[in-house]
Amino acid sequence: MNLAVFASGSGSNFEAIIEAINNGEVRGEIKLLVCDHPGAYAVKRAEKHGIPVFTAVLKTFASKAAFEEAVLAELRKHEVELVILAGFMRLIGPVLLSAYEQRILNIHPSLLPAFPGLDAIGQAFAAGVKVSGVTVHYVDAGMDTGPIIAQECVKIDESDTIEDLQRNIQRVEHQLYPQTIQQVIEQIKGSVHS
Ligand code: GAR
């Protein structure tokens, strides 16, 4: 299955997905990285792995719809079937949502619906919760909303710092996202054949 990953930052989840493809855990191919920040480390990771990059900076387009039309043209060019948001810090609008209905996944570092939006890890830490976690969900027009596909808990001990929590969450993300992507790929393949 042809995949595109959208990232805005470091791209550690992007890298985890690449690894999972290389070891056969995810049966797909990343055709394209879409990035909205030219200096993002995710771009370096893509270059290292020979993955084409489409960098699109929103403010250089006349509108959000024009930005998404440009992204959509790239996705079509690469025959992308499933879109994976991995730290893409932008809401997806109607152009992409209607072209990729039920075909856009997101990962978020909390047990949604708790702590949506920016800095979910900091929000959970500040709230003093004893359990947080990771959510993978289908994307809709909202901020970190949309049907939940998978969740995993991460315990927060009394002695944990925010850096500990960050590390523990990322460790879970790097396993849960590839597993869930493969599950969705199988589901799509099953529904196409039946
Ligand atoms: C990840 O923790 C991901 O869950 C989060 O951004 C981080 C990106 O890290 N996404 C969101 O907060 C979405 N609302 P990465 O660039 O190292 O993969």
TrEMBL record:
UniProt pathway: Purine metabolism; IMP biosynthesis via de novo pathway; N(2)-formyl-N(1)-(5-phospho-D-ribosyl)glycinamide from N(1)-(5-phospho-D-ribosyl)glycinamide (10-formyl THF route): step 1/1
Gene Ontology CC terms: cytosol
Keyword Transmembrane helix: no
UniProt cross-references to InterPro entries, sorted A to Z: Formyl_transf_N, Formyl_transf_N_sf, GART, GART_AS
PROSITE patterns: GART
GO biological-process terms attached to the record: 'de novo' IMP biosynthetic process
Binding residues for N(1)-(5-phospho-beta-D-ribosyl)glycinamide: G11, S12, N13
Lineage: superkingdom: Bacteria
The Formyl transferase N-terminal domain, residue ranges: 1-181
EC number of the protein: 2.1.2.2
UniProt key word Transferase: yes
Record site feature (Raises pKa of active site His), residues: D144
Keywords: Purine biosynthesis, Transferase
GO molecular function: phosphoribosylglycinamide formyltransferase activity
Catalytic activity: N(1)-(5-phospho-beta-D-ribosyl)glycinamide + (6R)-10-formyltetrahydrofolate = N(2)-formyl-N(1)-(5-phospho-beta-D-ribosyl)glycinamide + (6S)-5,6,7,8-tetrahydrofolate + H(+)
Active site feature: H108
HAMAP family: PurN
Family: Belongs to the GART family.
Name assigned to this protein: Phosphoribosylglycinamide formyltransferase
Organism: Evansella caseinilytica
